[in-house]
Amino acid sequence: MITTIYPSDRTGMERIRALLEKENLRMDANLDYTCAILDEAYNPIATGSCCGNTLRCFAVDHAHQGEGLLNEVLSHLMTVQQERGNAAVFLYTKGSSVRFFRDLGFHEIARVSDMIVFLENRRWGFSDYLSALQRESPADVKNTAAVVMNANPFTLGHLYLVEQAAAENEWVHLFTVSEDVSLFPFAVRERLIREGTAHLKNIVHHRTGSYIISQATFPSYFQKDEDAVILSHAQLDIAIFSRIAQALSITRRYVGEEQASRVTRLYNEIMLHDLPLAGIECRVIPRKEREGAPISASTVRRAIQSGSMDALPALVPPTTLAFLQSEESAAIRKKIAEAADVVHY
Q1: Quick check: bond before 153 cis, omega within 30?
Q2: Digitized pLDDT (tens) for each residue of the chain, 345 residues in all
Q3: CA 92 – CA 111 distance, rounded (Å)
């Protein structure tokens, strides 16, 4: 029998954690559903979890491998995903497990050696995504750049980065991270980006879909420490982005310089090294500053949380400011005011 392990079941979750550690895995930080197969003593002998439309944290007790338990867990989680309305389901696993998941209908999108492999249940999912990007884009353009941003919310710092890219290239592909885990919902972030860049006529807007995700939801259960998580996330991002760049003839990627966030700084360093290996120049643009400090989305969220709304005109474009001053943003501002931590790196 497949059993749901609820977050409130501390004993059950600790036993799941112990099984994962026994199989040289860690409990992932981002799980919204966990199940297990239990033995007669109610100890988990097989487990798997979901985070949104992704599957992660599969493990089978070594003593029970070869009994088809992982297949049962996967089938159960696919039913959960179907009930959620997710036709596209994604999976992260180690290279040693790829053959098993391929046999069960998953298809490889990208990998970082044997450390981590990204798979999807749809054979043509990524190819269809690339085709959609091409349909959204101008044809026969050679001098093309890209910017990927979450923009939580869109600030003058983001605008400065996009304007630099727009000034130096014939076209700029601007990708908005689609996952909805930020204080500002995706629909709002996308709208503010589009409104804030409306004066730039050489911008093509895209959604990242499920193919480019943030560090906030990147799976961490394969890696031994935070540095390994950052490295594998950056390298997998680059592997996927390189295929996007090839489809769209992108030759440059623009990122903002980072001093405050160690995570983003390491990420930038990896991109500076690895993107040129794929024939893509990585341009690091110094941050736009206000009173000697970089303008960031965290700065804006701190100002909102502290009630310093008078500081916002110097931090955000007029379009973002109008939204933040409107009643429409009241629920978001309330959530920020009540948040324990608004500085996200």
Answers
A1: yes
A2: 899 999 999 999 999 999 999 988 889 888 999 999 999 988 999 999 999 999 999 999 999 988 999 999 999 999 999 999 999 999 988 888 899 899 989 999 999 887 889 999 999 999 999 999 999 988 877 789 999 999 999 999 999 999 999 999 999 999 999 988 889 999 999 999 999 999 999 999 999 999 987 766 677 777 667 777 788 888 999 999 999 999 999 999 999 987 766 777 888 899 999 999 999 999 999 989 888 888 989 999 999 999 999 999 999 999 999 999 999 999 999 999 999 888 764
A3: 9
Strands 171-176 and 90-93, by their bridges, are unpaired
| 138 in Cβ contact with 171 (< 8 Å) | yes
**Euclidean distance between CA atoms 218 and 116, whole angstroms:** 11
- What secondary structure does DSSP assign to 7-26, as a single string? TT-HHHHHHHHHHHHHTT--
Q: How far is CA 283 from CA 128, 243, 278, in A?
A: 29, 19, 14
C-alpha–C-alpha distance, residues 320 and 185, integer Å: 14
Q: Which of 274, 284, 186, 206 is nearest to 237 (CA)?
A: 274
